[in-house]
Amino acid sequence: MSSRSSESDRDPSFRFDYDPATIRFGAGSVDDLEAELEALDLERALVVCGSTVGATSTVIEPVKSGLGDRLAGVFDETSAAKRLSTALAGRDRLEAEDADAIVSVGGGSSLDVATVISVLAANGYGPAAAGRELAETGTLPVPVEGLVPVVAVPTTLAGADLSTVAGIAADPDEGPIDEPVSGSVSHPDLMPAAAVYDPELVATTPDSVLAGSAMNGFDKGIETLYAANATPVTDATARHGLEKLEDGLRAFGDGDRDVATFETLLEGIVLVQYGISRPDETTLSIVHAFGHGLTAGYDVQQGAAHGIVVPHVFEYLFEREDVDARSGMLANALGVGDAADRGAAVVEAVAEIRDGLDLPAQLREVDGPQPEEFAAVAEVILDDAFMANAPPGLEPSVAEIEGILEAAW
Q: Is the CB of residue 110 less than 8 Å from the CB of residue 50?
């Protein structure tokens, strides 16, 4: 396996435009939510979360206490499906509570719904208009004024918090559409106003949820290093973030659950996502395209899908002499830079981290596509927008993508 690490094929010129959220970090940082809202000149916040978070006192009570008199109410109806109808109901609740801020608590799904609530509050779309727009365009219009600021309080490790994109989906019973539809909203102004990372809150999340989300977050750092639009800025944050995650995930896999472990994991998550979601572009790449292809229409958690395919994607990339997948930089970030074959060492290191998280290692272990469906899934993967960020020189065919799926089976 090639360990090619030269970056001579990459254009050294770049433009980096990034307006991140204010970040609060540390144990007990949710105690500062009221102060953060005051700093943002916001008076009343609607908490948006899922029913599990809303019913878990060790999570929701510190958030409510931290908001103090600025708590307007709790809307705990989000789900992994990220339904348009849920966002519309949340918008109605936001207006009923006369709230001028949203505090999203939970994983990426809750943040996505919170973001769409903000968009709906600004554009004023009703159910029919919103459903029709999503079906016809795959998105919703984002006005330049009227967006409700969102403060993200993540309880997972997916790294969806410093993002300007939110996914949304609808079924025929949710509006004037003929079949299920999914899409996204994207705009530079959709970056959260603040993100609060509290390791004590993350520690309350079940291990099974954290494991899948951690693999997703970990892959954000990996993809950022070899993405076609990587910059020296994102190289620095992603590499150091991967170093932190490598330490934290191995400790987590060994059973360590102290605050220090979660602090290390969260430090890594903050760093790997810093700068990856920028105006009109992202550094997410081929692995995330595989994740979309393997979860669209299948009951497969995205982190689990990533964990299964990452080693095989790497083997494919590193064997290509015409592709700059930056195995040297990845090897250094993962602590295997001294290996004789750095590509093989990266594959082994990633597989070890996945296995330490007790995630599935083969497609046959999950409720995903069967081999006879691989050709169709390969087409979906190749059509995914994230493939535009694949490593320089990579132009995969359907057959090659099928080969990766077959190796992962």
A: yes
pTM: 0.92
pLDDT of residue 175: 66
Counting as low any pLDDT under 50, the low residues of the chain are 2-8
CB half-sphere exposure, 408, CA atoms < 13 A: 35
How many residues make up the chain in this entry? Answer: 409
Residues of the chain with CATH 1.20.1090.10: 206-408
Among all chains, which residue has been given the structure tokens 């899934």?
A: 377
**CATH architecture of the domain with range 206-408:** Up-down Bundle (1.20)
- pLDDT (0 to 100) of residue 1: 63
What's domain 22-202's architecture?
3-Layer(aba) Sandwich (3.40)
Contact 176, 132 (CB under 8 A): yes
Outline where 68-107 has alpha helix (H): 84-96
Interaxial angle between packed helices 232-253 and 259-273, expressed in degrees from 0 to 180 and rounded to the nearest 10: 150
Segments in 254-373 forming alpha helices (H): 259-273, 286-295, 302-318, 327-333, 342-356
Our CA angle for 36, 38, 41, nearest 5°, is 115
CB 399 within 8 A of CB 292: no
